Amino acid sequence: MFICHCGINIGGVVNVPEVVKYAMTLPNVIYSEDNLYTCSSEGLSKIKEGIGKYNLNRIIVASCTPRTHEPLFRATCEEAGVNKYLFEMANIRDQCSWAHMHEPEKATEKAKDLIRMAVAKARLLKPQEEPEIEVAPSALVIGGGISGMTSALCLADQGFKVYLVEKEPELGGMLRHIHKLYPTMVDASEGLNKIVEAVKPNKNIEVWTSTVVKEVKGFIGNFDISFQKGNGETVNLRVGTIIVATGAEVFEPVGMYGYKKYDNVITQFKLEQLLKGGQLEKPERVVMIQCTGAREEKGRTYCSRICCMTALKNALLVKELYPETDVYILFRDLQTYGREYEEWHRMAQDRGVKFIKYALEKPPEVVAGHDGKLTVDVYHALLGERVQIESDLLVLSTPLVQHEDAKELSQMLKVPLGPDGFFFEAHVKLRPIDFATDGIYVCGTAHSPKDTAESVSQALGVASRAAIPMAVKRLRTEAITAMVDESLCSGCGTCVRICPYGAIEKDEKGVAKVTAVVCKGCGTCGASCPEKAISMRHFTDEQVIAQALAALGRAVA
Amino acid sequence: MTFEPRIVGFLCNWCAYAGADLAGVSRIAYPTNIRIVRLMCSGRVDPVFVLETLTNGADGVFVMGCHPADCHYIEGNLQAERKIKMLKKLIARTGLEPERLRLEWVSASEGGRFAELVKEFTDQIKALGPSPLAGEKPDPNILGDLLAAKATAGDFRLRVLVGREKGMIDDGNVYGEAVSQEEFDEVMDEAIAAEYVRNKIYFMVKKEPLSVKELSKRLDLDPRTVLRHIVVMRQRGWVAVDRIEGTSPLYTALEVGR
């Protein structure tokens, strides 16, 4: 037992000598001393000395928080030949002397309790090992659009083998159908072709088109994948990491605003293709309706992010092609975020594109007039009255949505889809392109609607993330994992369902089996197991209960 | 001497425990009464841990985890939430106040919130007074209640229900049928009530063989209800007939390995 004064941080409040004496009265404690700073090199050598002199097999430091100092003390124990999981800490500074500096007596009593709790746990600690695994230096990229190809190239350039799988017969994804890219107005095909031409001859990239993933097994460093090729042939291989770059598709607004009923009601995506193919005949008046099937109260509640800019871009292209054509954009909120896009809004206004704001509660109505003309009846939220616009081309800006088959892939990979159907990252702010499952990453519109530049940024990001374990080659995984007592397991499958990492499966005997290297050690399975057949290493039921009861001055019955 | 509650905290490592550290780093004072047990995730909190702690005389148990959507392990905190909800309903059936148990979310940056919550909870427990199970002479009736509650929380049925609650409501049951929260709560409430009574009966007949009539008197329950429970308990192998007195069988507890 090493009790730290932390200068005056602890010693100025807690009566450390009294606590040292108290510690000696606790069961199994054979040595107790105080240090001015246990974390100093002098303090650390005291720990090593104590281990040697008293043959200590459990070590407790009562000082600051394990969140900052546990690694240091654990390393010291290891240097002295004691497994680092036989070390325990009592937090008598951050959670005691600092918070209770005006109540020194009570703080001293609390410090004693915290130490008694640490002893109660330490007595039951077991040595643990952190399994080491090898990482195959190869990646699977699912999806051959701009995102998938970009990350494949980036990984290939770093010397890793990449398998690039595309379900369509050719590479390119969504960009193959796009006309021009804002804000540069270059042809989408120009940028795309460059990348396709770089991918195809690359020695490190194996491209399989018309191919789908059929089965995924294993874990980071060791994923075993089965594919089905277009010709029906099945291929198996092992990769170290997986990148999901499956993209998205455009929502088909069947039944909305006369879509599929009138020929001159089309999606923004279709207009894009007409412009690309030079097939757009001169319309008298184009009306675009934004947020068609997006930002709804239920269902597709999200903003599709790209539609405002796409509408502005195409409105300007129509104006350029046919200056006399009227273009109206009916919007709910125009979201031209960022460095360059607001400029486009102004440019469109300057060139005569007309903007009308409508409300979600009062969407525009479309009635077919005569001579193939449509009348769009819209409540003008700013004028406060209804306005009728006659139009011969109605363009619906619809959101990007997830592919139907994404669910199947998410189950295969054991990674989640969010409520909007898009792949769901590990943390929205801090781990935006990782999945919670190690070794699997997501980029591009598979994750959420985004434009080309944003997709490319993410694609480069995932290549960097995936390269880390492949460059390191060997990984140490968590020692704090779940363990199943097979004799108690009834095979009910509660843990299999509850595990957020897919780390538990039923084996051939029908009992739960934990893949330790996939388990992250949260312990939810253990707390939920109906047969109490699961416990957690380093946080066993016995250890936790002993620690809690020690707080009450009681021992386990 | 003024009453100083003994409060045991079960805090997740990543958010709540870090929030508690931050309170100290920021020198925010709060009552000294809480003793914290660090876990990796609030999802690790087994209902049995809480009941064991209360049985042993804790005046309060405070579980803290990450805010929803912030959980280091995706949704361990939401699993904890289901467990605490069940526990509060279960404790409400015992002689102990369910207010002695509380769950809150505290992020790593909320040192102030942590201190505020601990103060609030400590005051709340002070207002409730000492736990009837604290000290040298715990209330024997309430102790009996808690033993039954602990066994209930350790039994298969409630654990399966709690473990599957989130999945059943989010994804439907094994037949893919959607289950609403209301429907689920109804099943859960019925299960808590039934299983708690069965465990009460179990511990009563463990002490001494008793008849249905005597049990119904002690539990203040309709004899037919008690008999129905006895039938289930016999099927499960929890109780057997000890002997017949007059015309009524007296039941006794069998060893069920808990």
Structure description:
The complex is a heterodimer of chains A (557) and B (258). Chain A is an alpha/beta fold. Chain A folds into 4 domains: 2-128, Rossmann fold (3-Layer(aba) Sandwich); 134-248 and 402-475, FAD/NAD(P)-binding domain; 251-399, FAD/NAD(P)-binding domain; 482-537, 2-Layer Sandwich (Alpha-Beta Plaits). Helices cover 30% and strands 22% of the residues of chain A. In chain A, the strands form 10 sheets. Chain A has a 5-stranded parallel beta sheet with strand order 10-7-6-14-25, covered by helices on one side. In chain A, strands 16-23-17-18-19 form a 5-stranded parallel beta sheet. A 4-stranded parallel beta sheet of chain A has the order 2-1-3-4, with helices on both faces. In chain A, helix 2 packs across helix 3 and helix 6 runs parallel beside helix 7 (188-199). The longest helix of chain A is centred in the last third of the chain and has 21 residues, at 452-472. Chain A is elongated. The two termini of chain A are 25 Å apart. The mean pLDDT of chain A is 95. Chain B has helices at residues 16-25, 47-55, 76-92, 111-128, 140-154, 156-171, 181-207, 212-219, 223-235; strands spanning 7-12, 34-39, 60-65, 101-105, 239-245, 248-253. The mean pLDDT of chain B is 95. Chains A and B meet through helix 4, helix 5, helix 13, helix 14 and helix 15 of A and helix 1, strand 2, helix 2, helix 3 and helix 6 of B.
